[in-house]
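3.2 Worked example (two chains)
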Amino acid sequence: MNSISLYINKGSWLNRLHPYTKLLYILTAILVPLIGGKLWLFPVMITASLCILASGRILGKAMPLVLFSFTLILVIFLIQGLFNHDNRTVMFSIGVITFYREGVLFAVRIGCNILNMLLSFGIFVLTTSPQELVDELEKSGFSPKFGYIINSVFQILPQMMATRDVIADAQRSRGMETEGNMLVRIKAFLPLISPVVMSSLINTRERAIALEVRGFGRKQKKTWLYDRPKCKWDPAVRGILVFLLVLVIVWRIW
């Protein structure tokens, strides 16, 4: 049975990297432009994330994140470009609609920040097995309950999407119209969403029983059947990321 998660195992160097290394990349990708304070640092980190995704052969899977971010960026661009309270300098006009330089620059900064965060998190989510992350967290001393929460966060959305597809197929087989104009979709919404919610509640209860049967709350120290092999790239990547963070901090101070 396929794992219910966004994780994609391409056997690339990204899959072999330790989860903590990829978490450090997220921290670096977000902090470098914010600490540096320069707008051009956002495109630099975005380009780096795109290159990393391409090297891991998962760039195509990250495209929905890019398209989603463009929708948000467009809305932010319209709102800030037209109605930002600091708007003073006219940048360009389209008919009677006037965009201002201050608002557009503010929107560009926010949009780049959104895209940068989505891509950096995409690297982590698409190349890190949730179970592997939970195991490493527990080996580091975190509570199994914390690990379970993290695992659930990674799996809840893909699980609900899979359940929705199954229920939609079942409802269509019974003659229900789920595709068409807006009115048809509105009519089909409640018969589709209700079973999804009920199924999620039932799955939560069944999971709680399964965890209790397996001794989830036991106090004894946990043993491990599988030890994760070390990746030779981890020390080098961590060193580069820490160096970038220190460099941008020193640069900002001086």
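3.2.1 Second chain
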Amino acid sequence: MPGTSVRSPLGNRFRSVAGQVFVLQVAIVVLLAAGALLALVLQSRHDIDREARNRSVYVAQTFAHSPGLQAALKSPDPSAVLQPLTEETRKAAGVDFIVVMNTDGIRYTHPKPDRIGKRFVGTIEPSLAGQVHTESVQGPLGREIQAVVPVTAPDGKVIALVSAGLTVKSVSGVVDRQLPVILLAIAIGLALATGGTALISRRLRRQTHGLGTQEMTRMYEHHDAVLHAVREGVVITDGDGRLLLANDEAKRLLGLPEDIEGRRVGAVPGLDHRMADLLLSGRVATDEVLESGDRLLVVNQRATHPGGGPGGAVATIRDSTDMRVLTSRADTARRRLKLLYDAGVDIGTSLDVVRTAEELAAVAVPRFADYVTVDLADPVLDGDEPGPGADMRRTAVSGISPDHPLYPRGRLIDFLPSTPQARGYGTGKAELVPDLADAPGWHAQDPPRTRAIVAYGIHSLIAAPLTARGVVLGVVNFWRSREQPFDEDELSLAEELVARAAVNMDNARRYTREHALAETLQRSLLPRALPEQNAVDVAHFYLPAQSGVGGDWFDVIPLSGSRVALVVGDVVGHGLHAAATMGRLRTAVHNFSSLDLPPDEILARLDDLVQRIDRDGDGDEPNNGVLGATCLYAVYDPVTQRCTMARAGHLPPLVVAPDGTTEIVELPAGPPLGLGGMPFETAELHLAEGSQLVLYTDGLVEQRSRDIGEGLELLRTALSHPARDPEESCRAVLDILLPARPADDVALLVARTRTLGPDRVAQWDVPFEPSAVATVRSTAARQLDAWDLGELAFATELILSELVTNALRHGSAPVAVRLLYDRTLTCEVRDGSSTAPHLRYAATTDEGGRGLFLVAQLSEHWGTRYTPDGKIIWAEQPLPGTPGTKEPSLAAFPGLDLDLDTDDLDLEAH
């Protein structure tokens, strides 16, 4: 409005000459008033302090010269006489305390009776010298102003002291009561002076409008520039919603008439209602985009008085219509780059084909497509390369709604050649279908379902093949239902997105193939079924690592004499190499076990083998060596109930007694296989019948979340229960220790011991003379009759005759025979010689050499086992009625004399 200043009144007032004069005059008046107030307060405090000191001296001197004081001091109890007098005098004199004390400063009186008898707080030396002394101290009543005067005898000697005084609080109270009167007087004077100054300043401001000549010139130039030259709209409103100013650019952008100043915003013709609402609200707006007609306006609005004062706001307006297209393109490019970046981060987090497909589908919904389906060639899921024309299996489905009519996950789809999926799979190029309603080739695939898809609202499709390293793995389908149909630019984006995912998909496929091959190899090398034996009852468990199969293995190996070997081992590493190395070591253990060697010798030979493997792998194939391996080998004898074991860097076994007591076997660790240079040590322990021997690999007890000691303690706790069979113990251990996703192979072997009782064992010593052979035959025949094994008597007598004869001729004393009645009938002949027999094929003209050959023909298995004091030659025969057995044939011995009733049988002589 004309004559209305657009500048802040407060700013004008203090920038103008009148305002500066007003401020200067007010400042002078305030300083004068403050100085007067300070002087009055200081003078008043000084006078009151002086008055307090004088009053204290007068009261103290008056009481010191009061009649009867010296008589009271000489009484037996001065406090009883003086305390009432001092309190009465204190109240009458208007002081806060009167204290009478002796020359040592010990009080006789005090307003607080509990202070009587205590030392006076203050300086008494000047008063003891006959002087009157005043001071300010921190006493029992607070900050005190006190006077101390002497009480003198007629001879002038100081016999006591009297102190009187006031507290600072009492003195300050007097000043505080006077202060309002002083302030009121100063305020009246300040108001009168300020009022006069204001009248003068107002008169001066009215004459100059608060501006000087130069400032008024500059103000006009700025105002003219804002109105006509600035190419940004400016609109100023007051607190009542009236337009105070709208420059030329604002009128052009908003389509406003010329004469709008002074009108209410809501009544301005042609003003868009959204813009009007923003201007009337007066709220803060920063780069807020509004449409006004065919223009896109960016509005910023701030209050004209953010700190208070009259209401109002100023708004600036920019035309960004020309930037809309560029902004849209930049935003689209940004979204696409963000999508590709997220795809690189979120796709391929695991080497799993299905998981990778699901991650690809999840990344694209809903930022690029409303629905995404991933169809992979069926062989890809097994890690194989697909061939042409392979059927597709829907591997992943993701969308904005779960009730879509697309093929479900897991469906095996045979796409027709007319479909974009089949064409893309065949050519390796992406296919764009902008309008699914007009796609007859696609409709031919499944007319009812395609009609349901179109009816559902899905209108466009991009089928992009997953191509990696020249192999098409499948097709990714991008479906859209809400936004505009896909265009050529989005087709290139889909191709790039799928190309990035295809590499991860192929890596997952290759890993799946290698993992499957390694797992197949490993399982083929592990025992499929445990052999039959009666020494132990066994439960076992094996689980390969999630990250790739490793080299863990276990074995149960029947040995001669009804014994059994329990083996567990671990090859460091994962993959095909570890599995193949495990197979080589397991085969070697089987071969070495057939030699009936002690556990420490088995491990020594295995150590030599690993060293040879490492030396063979030093050439161009560095992975042919063994990176590290551990092994535990235990032999249990059910006849003696002794268990002998040795380990090469492996974790120690646990023994669970029949009552549930669990102990970790103190077994020398020994170096891992392949290091060489150090011998392996054995440990031997007696196992009660029903004890459980637990062997395992480190994948069971060692995890990142806990150390191996904690794992062993958990294993001990899981096993510490009586009367469990091996299967129950195995399940209990797995329930507690088996990780959800094991990082290493897990192998567990639980063996419960059994015994071969005395009724199944027959043994006797053999005199070292040829005539003992007949005695052995007859004794063995009687024992077989007792076991109801008479059918085996003939063959057994032949076997024992040959073995005993060999021991007597070629061995040394002592000689002993043992028969074991288990799953087979075992004949053992022990002697003190370590000479090794061997099988010969004698010619028809030879006089000897057929003995062991005869033993081999009559027995199922035979062999030699060395002991610390000699050797044992053994032979096993199947029991009568055992499936798959046949009668022994003696056709190879036409000249054999079968008259076993003679006293001496010399098989070598025939």
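3.3 Remarks
DSSP finds 24 helices and 30 strands in the chain.
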